[in-house]
Specification:
Strand order of the largest sheet: 6-8-9-11-10
Enzyme class: transferase
Number of strands: 11
Number of helices: 10
Helix content: 40-55%
CATH class of one domain: Alpha Beta
EC number: 2.7.13.3
CATH topology of one domain: Heat Shock Protein 90
Keywords: ATP-binding, Cell inner membrane, Cell membrane, Kinase, Membrane, Nucleotide-binding, Phosphoprotein, Transferase, Transmembrane, Transmembrane helix, Two-component regulatory system
Order of helices and strands: HHHEHEEEHHHEHEEHEEHEE
Membrane topology: Multi-pass membrane protein
Largest sheet: 5 strands, mixed
CATH architecture of one domain: 2-Layer Sandwich
Catalytic activity: ATP + protein L-histidine = ADP + protein N-phospho-L-histidine
Shape: rod-shaped
Length: 474
């Protein structure tokens, strides 16, 4: 069986891997525009590197061909001269024609018997044969002789294999002689050929800057419809049914904007139909309830009459409250900047509540609806908590409105239930002492429509605390 890593070591390895992934994610752009620009930069860099590789290979082939052509011309020039002089002169010519990159020898045996099958050897043998007008020329790549110099003129390493050429000579004395040439064709560099780095890096940097600049502008224009869609969706989440997205940009973005606008139109139509229906229902209910009230007033039994009238009054309040709740506090009010300090100050002044607030906090919303929502919280605190204290502050993301009282509080298991329609803190209350249980429901509906949150909690020193968080614009 395989050896298991200790548990602690395995956990450390996983933590290290997670930290590495977290660092990579922080380096990776988070926005679509940033990722688009990064993609362009990587593509340009890859294209330049690929182009450099192709250019280097082509340059290497071209340089090798130039070197081979030069050796063909040089050897072809020496052969007639060697064949027209005596042996001692031939040796001098061969010795003078040799260099650190090539060795020429007049020998009594050929170094090669045939041409090897590689393309370079075949090309050199064919070139010499055509130039000299003979077909007894052989060329091949062989291992470098041990005695040969392994360093070039500037100390660079030479190739392990060298090019050898063998050509028979027609001498005056009739003896068989061969010109054996060993050359590496110039210094061999592994990998890419030398490229002047400063011009290349300058060109690469300028091209990347140009592409990144153009890409940033293009990416900003490309993602602008997405930003507009996001802003419209946030506005719709706050209850703004008039929010629309311009149908511009790429086809996919136009289709998304068209779908969003159609959805907004359908929701607006649904809201309008619901409000018309509720208005009609409220109007139709008042007529029979008024008729019943008139009949109840005619009942002789005073106790029965009072009970019937009280029930009808309760039904009327419940019907009116249900209409207000179903409207979500929207009515026909437009979204506009709302100064929360000014709004809360007036609400507390009208109700006699204590207020401590920070100035300069604004949000986009419906002033009347927000006043109704927070006013319901203050009214509950004043009615059941023997006074209310309202505080306005701001954290990094939102405005915080806190409404506190000194009442008996609410059982912890019923705090969330208090937001449900027709739920009262005290089931024994009637419409005169405890309402119909819609105040907190209406408040939460309005606050949620503005993209906010509301929570209830009991204070440790006694009483209830309602906390409202709302999105701000500054």
């Amino acid at each position: 069986m395989g050896r298991r890593l200790p548990v602690g070591r395995g956990c450390n390895a996983r933590r290290a891997e997670r930290r590495m992934m977290d660092r990579f994610r922080r380096l990776f752009p988070d926005t679509l525009a940033g990722r688009f620009v990064l993609l362009l930069a990587v593509a340009i860099l890859a294209a330049n590197l690929i182009g450099l590789g192709v250019l280097s290979l082509q340059k290497q082939r071209f340089d090798q061909q130039v070197i081979d052509d030069r050796w063909i011309e040089r050897i072809a020039t020496l052969i007639p001269a060697m064949e027209s002089v005596d042996a001692d002169i031939r040796d001098v010519i061969a010795r003078e024609a040799s260099s650190r990159s090539a060795r020429m020898r007049i020998e009594d045996r050929p170094l090669l018997r045939e041409t090897s099958t590689d393309s370079r050897s075949i090309s050199i043998a064919r070139g010499l044969a055509e130039t000299l007008g003979r077909d007894d020329v052989n060329a091949a790549l062989i291992d470098r002789p041990p005695s040969a110099d392994t360093r070039g003129p500037r100390g660079e390493p030479r190739a392990e294999r060298v090019l050898a050429v063998t050509i028979p000579l027609s001498t005056r004395d009739g003896q068989a002689r061969w010109l054996n040439v060993i050359t590496d064709g110039g210094p061999q560099r592994p990998g890419l050929v030398s490229v002047n780095s400063r011009p290349f890096l300058t060109f690469l940097g300028l091209s990347l800057l140009c592409v990144l600049g153009v890409g940033a502008v293009f990416a900003s224009r490309l993602t602008k419809p997405l930003r507009q869609l996001s802003q419209a969706a946030q506005a719709a989440g706050r209850g703004d049914r008039s929010a629309r997205v311009p149908e511009a940009g790429a086809r996919e973005m136009r289709e998304a904007a068209r779908a969003f606008n159609a959805m907004q139109a359908e929701i607006s139509q649904f809201d309008a139909e619901r409000m018309r229906m509720l208005a009609a229902v409220g109007h139709d209910l008042r007529t029979p309830m008024t008729s019943l009230r008139i009949r109840a007033e005619m009942v002789d039994d005073e106790e029965q009459r009072d009970a019937m009238v009280r029930t009808l009054d309760e039904m009327t309040v419940m019907a009116d409250g249900l209409v207000v709740y179903a409207k979500d506090g929207r009515d026909a009010e437009n979204v506009q900047p709302v100064d929360l300090d000014d709004l809360l100050g007036k609400l507390c002044e009208d109700r006699g509540a204590q207020y401590n607030g920070a100035s300069g906090i604004q949000m986009m919303g419906r002033r009347v609806a927000l006043g109704r929502a927070i006013g319901n919280l203050i009214d509950n605190a004043m009615r059941y908590g023997a006074g209310a204290t309202v505080t306005l502050s701001r954290d990094p993301q939102s405005a915080v409105v806190i409404v506190e009282d000194c009442g008996p509080g609410i059982p912890p298991d019923r705090l969330e239930d208090m937001f449900h329609p027709f739920t009262r803190g005290d089931d024994s209350r009637n419409v005169e002492t405890g309402g119909v249980g819609l105040g907190l429901s209406i408040a939460r509906t309005i606050i949620l429509a503005h993209g906010g949150r509301i929570t209830l909690e009991n204070r440790t020193e006694g009483g209830l605390r309602a906390t409202v968080r709302l999105q701000v614009i500054r």
